[in-house]
Give the backbone structure.
Amino acid sequence: MRDGLVPALEAAEVEHGRAGETSAGEKQAWRHSLPVMARDLRDAGLGAVDMMIEYKLPECQGPADVILAGVHPASRAPSYVVVELKQWRRATAAEGTGRFVIANQTGKSKRHPAEQTAAFCRALLNSHGSLAGHEESLAGLTYLHNAADHDVADLLRYPRTRLSHVFTRDSRGALIRFLRDRLAAAPGRPAAELFAAGPLRVRLAGLDARGRLDWHTGGFRLASDPVAVQRFVLDTVRAAHAAQDKSALVVTGAAANQGGELVSTAANALDRAGYRTRVLSGPRVPAFQVCDVLFCEESWLRCTAPLSAAADLPDSVRPLLAAMIRSARVPVFVLAGGHVAPGEAEGFGGVIRQVCSALRVPDRHLRLDREFC
């Protein structure tokens, strides 16, 4: 809470081999933002919680400002909150871009800070052994401690997930309640040491240290190693979501029962990680709401828009597919049939390609029967 904070962090940078990595502006943020977070923890009765500052992951752009480590008040298990601290006073949406213009800042517009926090949380869930099977122990928030609600109204319209809460100086009371719901008035040091001691979880056989499939071990078996297949699809969906340009995924080569299990498992995993995920099911055509990932199985398509014996499609199918593709950052179609080669128009695979082409959205095919022979 006093002037010794920045020198202490500079000394820690030298100790950890990161001297010179932090700019003068970032150190200024340390001086003004970190004491605010410490004050709020103290006022919430959580002064014993540990603050892990500038926590860095190799696959993430920039470190997390703070990770709060403590004990969950109900379960008494370790509990963690990733915090992105912003000194922004005013932010407005840059029309049509999905990004934001920050007052008194030059340069390119910024993405929503909650996206950054959620991405960091997902990276932690993917890499840290202490979180394996305990995704509920992690939450994320952005704290705009200099801003009033009306000055960042465009930011506050961002959909909330467990990994992307947003608080301002006007909602400081709500922030304190949120912290008390996640952290108990108990020492956080054991949870911090557990978190830092074993960062990388044990990987499935055939995956490298970053969780990518190793294609040089003879391949996986689709039927006998479904976990590896699920991880491959999840990694591909996550990569497509993080990419700069939108794309659609078409998954082929799995039997109907395998495709249903794959969709259910992937959707549940993405939901736990904070993605807004939808799975099309039932006989009715839904209103397509904006989401991160949309899963559609061929069985749903066949019930909704059946193909005739001549493989002709009713006129409603193409607008239906277009609505799906437009509504999701990553639309995923799981087709039980084989892959349709370029130029062929038979089956749903060919129609999906044509609709993607009309919308100028690249389509990528995951051929599970070939890649997991």
Observations:
- The mean pLDDT is 79.
- The CA atoms of residues 73 and 184 lie 4 Å apart.
